Every structure is written in structure tokens, then in C-alpha cells.
Amino acid sequence: MDATWILRLDAVGDGPRIAVKDCIDVAGTPSTVGCRVIAANALPATLDAPVVENARRQGARIVGKTNLVELCRHADGINPWTGTPVNPLDSTRVPGGSSSGSAAAVAEDEADIGYGTDTGGSVRVPAACCGLVGLKTTAGRINTQGVFEFSRTLDTVGPLARDVAGAALGMAMLEPGFTIAEPPTGTPPLARLRLPHVDPALDAAIDDALRTAGIQTTDVRLPEWRSWVTAAKDLASAEGYWAHRHLLDRSEHLEDRHAGGIREGRDFTAAHVLACRRTGRAASAHLNALLDRYSALALPTLAIEPPRIGEVRRVSLTYLTVPFNLAGLPALALPVPRRGGALPASLQLVGAAYTEESLLALGAHVEAALAADGG
Question: What is the pLDDT of residue 12?
Fold first, then answer.
């Protein structure tokens, strides 16, 4: 079985090829969410999710439903039931998830755009692992009707593509009429977030890329970061329990880590959920205050290089991504070279809410500068 795909579809025409993560409804096909329990009773969707309908109306071709981590619940891309998509950069390493199949389909040139979902990093992490561009959209900007729910507060839909132009096309498929902004003039100042537990080689790659692009930065440290990570994960766990608790009736058919994760969410009290939401408001206020001073925030997408399959990770794959879900901000993951010809690093650029147009323009500026420099 080709672990990239849950289902391939014949699609005639010459419009862009879109691979749809199998947690997003495509009319006439079931959404299995990579889960045996759901697949056993899944009926074909009667309607396209709005994000799919928008694409079809613009002539896009839906070429298939892609594999994912069961229930969208982890960021490594591994699924023992449906298989694990191959990382095109290094087959021994995880492809990243949960939108693993959409990333692999784009990287293998079997699709021009991959639709993914991002609750804590599930578009940006596979983009970083597979050397792609991935965009986490502003909370609430893209309609999530017809999308399998994990956390109603944190869930977003966004595109994966081979370059920034492809990601901009993906946004236009999701949101008809979307256009990227004009390239930034001069060298807009960015806040360079400095966080603990990041591989120094990845930090260096980010600094090199920004320097090559002629972008001025100011170092900013965020001692609250760990509390933001914890609040985001606890909120997703609590909301995920209410969304997935019915699956515990057949928990023996779930992957153990996901059945355990659902049960853990049951233990969070309403008071704790409220505290997590308050932490999210504080994180949003703090980050937006920075974005009042700087055009964007810059940091790596991953704190470590993509781990090998089965390797114990010292840092969570969503450590540098999930706080921006908590704050509801858009974030772009962009591959950048590393010294010594190693696997690419991934630059994460974060903007103010609803500024995807200018965020993609900034990404295009960096991408062009790296290409001109030979990177």
C-alpha cells in the first residue's frame, strides 16, 4: 500500500492538483481520519467541505485523500494502521504530522497543493520535516465546516506547497480572491525569538537566512513560553476528549497513545480549561504587542532536526509551533539551507492576525534572496 494516500481519485482537467487530508470531507468519499474505528462506520460525505467546494469552483482537481496520524493527534506522521508516508528527504526520518500524507504528496510532485489541518503544528511540522512551505492560517479565517474536529479553539486549515507561490495559490483555493501582497520595501525589522532547547545548528541556519535576505532583527526572549506550550496542549487535550470520547467504546482498536490521550483529556476541570484560555489571551496580548513594534516574528519551526523513526525525542515536535495556535496567529514555515549540506532547517515567520497576504510576501522575499545566493 502507498502510505501517502488513503484514496486516489481520478480528476480530469488542467487546474491545480490538490491532495486533501482525509479529515476533510470530499463528496462521495468517506473521511476515515486514519482510524479503524471511524472507518468501520464511515459513510461517503454528501457534500464537499467548503474549502474543497471553493477549490472545485476555481477549476482545481481533487486527486485524492491523504494519509495522516490517527485522529490528527500527534505530529510525527506515524500511523501503524494505514502506514507511515516516506519522508522524501530521508526515509529513515519521520515525515511529520499529522498532515503527513499531504506533505508527502506535494514533495513527491503528486499534487501541487496539499490541504492540511493545524491544531498545534500539523501543517508546519510536516512542511519542516519534508522541506516544504506550510501555512498555518489565522484562527477563524478559513471555514472548518466539514473538517474533523480535534480542538474547536485551535483547529485551522492551511496549505502545503513546494514554494511560497504554491502556498499563495493554496490560500486562493481555500479563500477565493486571496492575493499575496506586494514585496516588502527596504528591510522590515523582525523580532528574532530566542528560546531554550533549540538545536544551535538550526538557530544558526535561521540567522543565516535572515541575514542573506537583508532583514534586520532584534532578539526577544519569552520566559512565558513554556507556560504557553502547556496551556495549548492542555486545552487541546480537554477539547479533544469531548470531541473523541465516543471512540473509547472501541478503544482496543485505537492506537494506545491516542486512546490514552483521549482519557487524559477527561481529567481536566472546567476551571483548568478556563485558566488555559486566560493564558491564551495573555499570550495573544504579549505577541500582538511585539507585532505592533515589528513586522513579524522569526524563529525555527522545529527545535530539533526531524528525528529518525523510533528515536526518542528530547523536545516535542510542536514546542515551537503550538503557542501560535493558542494565540490564533498565522505562521509560515519555509525551508532554509543549513551549513554543511545537512537536511534543511525551517524558518517560521509569524504575523498579526489576518495578515497572511503580507506574511507570504515576506516569505517570498526570503525565498528569492536565498535562491539568488545559491541556497
Answer: 87
Active site residue 21: yes
Written as nine digits, the cell of 83 is 502506514
Does 284 qualify as catalytic in the annotation? no
All residues at 6 or more sequence positions from 170 whose CB lies less than 8 Å from its CB, including other chains: 18, 113, 114, 115, 135, 158, 159, 160, 161
Q: Which of 31, 65, 98, 358 is catalytic?
A: 98
Dihedral (Cα; 26, 28, 31, 35), 10-degree rounding: -150
pLDDT of amino acid 201? 96
Looking up cell 487524559 gives 264
Q: What percent of the chain has pLDDT over 70?
A: 99
Select which of 102, 122, 151, 284 is catalytic: 122
Low pLDDT (below 70) residues in the chain: 1, 187, 375
Task: Supply 7's cell numbers.
Answer: 484514496
Q: What is the pLDDT of residue 99?
A: 98
Percent helix, percent strand, percent coil in the chain, to nearest 5: 40, 15, 45
Q: Does the bond joining 358 to the residue before it have cis omega, within 30 degrees of 0? A: no
Assess whether 65 carries a catalytic annotation.
Answer: no
Helices (H), the chain: 36-41, 50-57, 100-107, 124-130, 164-174, 200-212, 225-244, 256-266, 270-293, 322-327, 356-372
158 to each of 166, 296, 364, 365, how far by Cα in Å?
Answer: 12, 19, 17, 20
| Of 21, 65, 136, 233, catalytic | 21
pTM of the model: 0.97
Q: What pLDDT does residue 187 have?
A: 66
Assign 282 to helix, strand or coil: helix
